[in-house]
């Protein structure tokens, strides 16, 4: 649901910002600024992406947990995608995600959210899996009764199994 809202709200914010910035600095400088931020963002993405890739490789070679470098790399990828999207609002988000302390804060927030969602879902799954035991126990004996099967062939008197 929040993705749908973002797909509606973010373009509206971008349109408003294009109008405001275009009114302040003019059309041509606005377009140049959008293109320059995309180029600068791509260059920063490449530089930081290579750095995170080197950290990931080092953690794997040393046998350390690669989750941190993987998470940072994923957020750098998101930053790159957002920076390549034309607009001032998305550029601000993209540049913010290229700052390591901001990435660490986002990773910490997402880790807490994911962990709490997993615990809630696991609790609900275990509650559904084990229904409460009933106190009414009925003890009894049983026996298997032979079934009376008519001798009309292997599957009865259907037209499909009839032997002529």
From TrEMBL:
Keywords: Membrane, Transmembrane, Transmembrane helix
One Gene Ontology cellular component annotation held by this UniProt entry: membrane
Membrane spanning stretches: 28-47, 68-86
UniProt keyword ATP-binding, yes or no: no
Region (Disordered): 122-164
InterPro entries: FxsA (IPR007313)
The keyword Transmembrane belongs to this UniProt entry's keyword annotation: yes
NCBIfam families attached to this UniProt entry: PRK11463.1-2 (NF008528)
The protein's name: UPF0716 protein FxsA
Organism lineage string: Bacteria, Pseudomonadati, Pseudomonadota, Alphaproteobacteria, Rhodobacterales
